[in-house]
TrEMBL record:
Keywords: Hydrolase, Nuclease, Toxin-antitoxin system
Database matches in InterPro entries: HepT-like (IPR008201), HepT-like_sf (IPR037038), Type_VII_TA_RNase (IPR052379)
Protein known as: DUF86 domain-containing protein
PANTHER family per UniProt: MRNA NUCLEASE HEPT, UPF0331 PROTEIN YUTE
One Gene Ontology molecular-function label: hydrolase activity
Claim: Hydrolase is one of the keywords in the record: yes
Family: Belongs to the HepT RNase toxin family.
Organism per entry: Shewanella xiamenensis
Entry GO terms, CC: toxin-antitoxin complex
């Protein structure tokens, strides 16, 4: 595994840990804007690092040229690097990231809470699949 992937995996792990630390039991999340910003920023970083890994593997294995961030995960699934359900979940994360970054619409905090409770493991699963794919 090369340094790019190692560094991106380290970033994802660090961000997941940070989300879990600051979120805690979630009781203050909807009232604490600083807490919201911290969780959302770290989710964005997880998304960006995952996209970077996907793009790197697409380029490295010559799987195709993605036309969008979502396409990066589609190409990985089409080439059996990741499963289709994992690709679908990661593409939804890209949508969440787009809303947060570009402020297309107000970010629904209930969705963020759902992601924290049910989808951080998608990033962890992605990391594990990539480690196998990259033989490390």
């Amino acid at each position: 595994m090369n340094d790019i992937i190692i560094n991106k995996i380290t970033t994802i792990k660090r961000c997941i840990k940070r989300i879990q630390q600051v979120y805690g039991d979630g009781s203050k999340f909807k009232q604490d804007f600083t807490l919201q910003d911290s969780v959302i920023l770290n989710l964005q970083r997880c998304c960006e690092a995952s996209i970077d890994i996907a793009n790197h593997i697409n380029r490295q294995q010559q799987l195709g040229i993605p036309q969008s961030s979502r396409d990066s995960f589609t190409l990985l699934a089409q080439n059996n690097v990741i499963t289709q359900p994992l690709a679908d979940n990661l593409k939804k994360m890209v949508g969440l990231r787009n809303i947060a970054v570009h402020d297309y619409q107000e970010l629904n905090l209930d969705i963020v809470v759902h992601v924290v409770h049910h989808h951080l493991e998608d990033f962890e699963q992605f990391i594990e699949v990539i480690k196998v794919d990259q033989r490390c």
